[in-house]
Task: structure prediction
Amino acid sequence: MVRVRFAPSPTGFLHVGSARTALFNWLFARHEKGEFLVRVEDTDQTRSNKEFLDEILDSLKWLGMDWDGELVFQSKRLDIYKKYAKELLDKGAAYESEGAVFFKIPDEKIKITDLIRGPIEFDSKVIKDQVMIKSDGFPTYNFACVIDDADMSITHVIRGDDHISNTPKQVPMYKALGFKPPQFAHIPLIMGADGGRLSKRHGATSLSEYRDMGYLPDALRNFIALMGWSPGENKEMASLDEMVKSFDIKNVVKTAAVFDINKCAWMNGQYIKEMELSKLVDLIIPLLKEKKLITEEFDQKKLTELVALYKERIRTLPDLCNLAEFFFKDDFTFDEKGVNKHLKKEGASGILLKLKERFESSDKFDVKSIEDTTRSLADELKIKAAAVIHPARMALTGRTVGAGLFETIEILGKEKTLKRLQDAAEKFK
RNA sequence: GUCCCCAUCGUCUAGCCAGGUCUAGGACAAGGGCUUUUCAAGCCCUCGACACCGGUUCAAAUCCGGUUGGGGACGCCA
Result:
């Protein structure tokens, strides 16, 4: 049976690249009906930290991944590493020096057949003897990794490209211990726009940052999987189930991918668009509370109507807070360019006042009558409807873009509409 | 410096393993148009790539070699 593992070290947040490594391992395991384990590589006593571990695990769950069995902590397996270290010492395959235990790299060609890259050969002459047990008694990464993968019966090691050079250090260890090395699959790294490894200077790199920025787990997971793998048949959107069904490690590309936040945002918008309205509202409510745009008491029905208006045009959840700020507060901000273009224009203020008067004297205030009122005013003034609509949108929402104006006015309500038209007319006269 | 990996539109990729159906397909972005209200929505169109050189072959994006370019690794970090 296939058994794979994801082996994070709890020394930082879950990086986008690591998340993808975890995802590919998970997809592979689920596709093969095998097992996906999580092993915590916490042998660096000074840098490992429980908060990071919790964050990493939360991120995995958030993306929709689950794992089999209990978490394995390397820090709790010191005896096992020592046992095997002693075995290698006794066999003469290792030696002690300066308080540490070194593995003797045998003089031979080391060949591996990578599932993604095919055969790779190394000359052991260029590899130094490797520390197995540090002088603090803890195992090094390379040694613990080999022992655990063998001990946990891991069949496939799917990991980042940056580990290729660790492979020739590890394979001889398996052999010296009499273990059969697992199959290896090295997936390419994720890069920033400048071609270097994706890091902080390129922007957000951790899963939790994306979650906080309003990205949906389904969208992020879909997007991450697309870097290096594709569902085929020109498809891009794929649910978790569809991915499990069609995932094949052999179809993972060999080339590094540049993380394109713009496409990621686009994809997020697609998922928002397809999401059930009530679900979307549920996701947005906590965000609005956090931004103090609503309190505990709010009109759920009205909010739902608002979200429905904006659902098709937002790419991330906070987009709504920005685009529909006018709905939640009266001292909303004005887009400067829009003010110059539509409000500080000759005659704009007069138009706003006239529109206000028309609304005031109209009994009805539904989308249809709002539209009729607006258009007939434009007709009478012998100007295009746009000449009324643009200033009105700016006056009411502070934005040049948004949902349809008439719907926007209806949801805003008569009272606020009148006041804002009046205020803007005076302010930008 | 040494070793290793990689090379299709600006970006993500399909095609490559089993050479012809590829004047190279899709998506994001960009540019243009339509939607007689904006747009970051929708629809349509356009732009845009097989890094280079050589070899094998009747035929190469696909196979081989080299060059160049990019990336990674060389820790008692993981």
Notes: Chain A has a mean pLDDT of 93. The CA atoms of residues 229 and 363 of chain A lie 59 Å apart.
